[in-house]
Design goal:
418 residues; alpha/beta; 41% helix
């Protein structure tokens, strides 16, 4: 499963780049596609790229049989090399199981790094912070600069999701966060509020570089009847689709409440995640006949399903921490040419309002979400125009553009080292 390859000119002085990312394809998710797009672009430019990641297990927490009984896979089937390592995966997501999961990757990622050979620059992405800590250790072992990619603020997000307790554990996590930000040669982040937060901690130049999330060319496809039929929704039924991780951060119980208030609208949930079981049970108990759940689809099948929907739901938790977050799926959904229903505040809301690509409602507010969905269903012409505007905006937020910015950072940092 490869990201789209665009014709690019190869560089004269290629770098040896090591990417440390706990999550990576064949897993599906925002981190995976972001780092894959970076790896694909850098390799196409002629850089020697190695990725260190985990054995696939997300989101179920179960390692496939093909990886059982070994600690390492050295995959050279792509234009870049992938070193996959064993992790202590667990389908039960408790604080202790998560810690074992993160620490096992940190330890093995650091241990196998010498197999990648000498590197010019290390790119590590966080969260989790422990993957970034492995990147820092590897950079020091190679006397190489570390470029830190910050996709979410952690531990702030973990506190909002109740994944970490206050007290000693929080103080240690915050100390690690500060150390990583200060020791990185350069930090890049996905939103302006993230950049401001990081710069307050770093205090010294260079300033954090904004490299936002973007979308892929594959999401700009028309919908078709077959894709809609896969969800078993008749063409005359207004369809609101959520596709992605069913987690605490998404605040999805509010969407079920909204569905209960809008029985003439169908809500489809596509994907997996730790909250899915409870959501399915709740919908069944309440006999919500206008709600359906569907298994995770391969990335190549998702764009057509999105484009065949009438509106696309992008929800976030109402916790104040998430006002600075911008879900990466927002740009993928706008690329599909359908109006989005954004249930969030802050930075994400400002983007949708600026793009004119959908309606914005208060997060975890079922009444507002139901009203937003009904408004779109009752105003098809306006909804269509929103979809077109959102799609045009998404064309300015392509991942290959972000990858070009990242390459500039890596080349500049490596040149200073030389």
């Amino acid at each position: 499963m490869e990201a789209e390859a665009s014709p690019v000119e190869r560089v004269r002085r290629p770098l040896r780049v090591l990417i440390v990312s706990q999550y990576f394809p064949p897993e599906i998710g925002a981190t995976q596609t972001r780092m894959q797009a970076f790896g694909e672009f850098l390799a196409a430019r002629g850089h020697a790229v190695t990725v260190i990641c985990e054995f696939p297990n997300h989101p179920h927490g179960v390692i496939p049989d093909a990886y059982r009984g070994r600690l390492l896979e050295d995959d050279r089937s792509n234009p870049y090399r992938v070193l996959r390592v064993w992790v202590k995966a667990n389908p039960k997501k408790t604080r202790s199981s998560r810690m074992a999961f993160y620490l096992s990757f940190m330890g093995l990622a650091t241990a196998v790094a010498p197999l990648a050979g000498r590197v010019d620059v290390v790119l590590a992405t966080t969260p989790p912070l422990f993957a970034a800590a492995a990147g820092l250790a590897i950079a020091r072992l190679n006397f190489a600069p570390l470029v830190l990619d910050v996709r979410d603020l952690w531990p702030a997000a973990a506190i909002g999701l109740n994944e970490i307790s206050t007290g000693r554990a929080l103080r240690m996590a915050e100390a690690l966060e500060r150390r990583l930000y200060k020791d990185a040669a350069v930090v890049v982040a996905v939103t302006r509020p993230f950049c401001a937060h990081i710069d307050r901690i770093r205090t010294a130049p260079p300033q954090t570089v904004l490299i936002p999330n973007g979308t892929l060319e594959r999401f700009f496809v028309p919908g078709d009847g077959k894709a809609r039929a896969r969800l078993s929704i008749p063409p005359d039924r207004f369809l609101v689709t959520f596709a992605g991780t069913h987690g605490i951060a998404q605040g999805l119980p509010a969407a079920l409440e909204a569905a209960a208030q809008a029985d003439d609208i169908h809500f489809a949930f596509v994907g997996e995640g730790p909250a899915k079981r409870d959501l399915v049970a709740s919908a069944r108990e309440r006999a919500l006949h206008n709600v359906s759940f569907h298994s995770q689809l391969p990335l190549e099948e998702i764009p057509a399903v999105l484009a065949a929907s009438d509106a696309l739901l992008v929800p976030l938790s109402a916790h104040p921490t998430f006002a600075d977050f911008v879900p990466s799926k927002l740009f993928d959904f706008m690329a599909a040419g359908r109006p989005v229903i954004l249930s969030a505040r802050g930075e994400a809301a400002r983007i949708v309002e600026r793009a004119g690509g959908g309606v914005v409602v208060e997060p975890e507010n079922p009444d507002a979400l139901a009203r937003g969905a009904k408004w779109l269903a009752e105003h098809p012409n306006e909804a269509s125009e929103m979809g077109k505007r959102g799609q045009e905006f998404a064309r300015t937020r392509l991942r290959r553009i972000d990858a070009e910015r990242l390459e500039h950072v890596l080349v500049h940092v490596a040149a200073r080292r030389r």
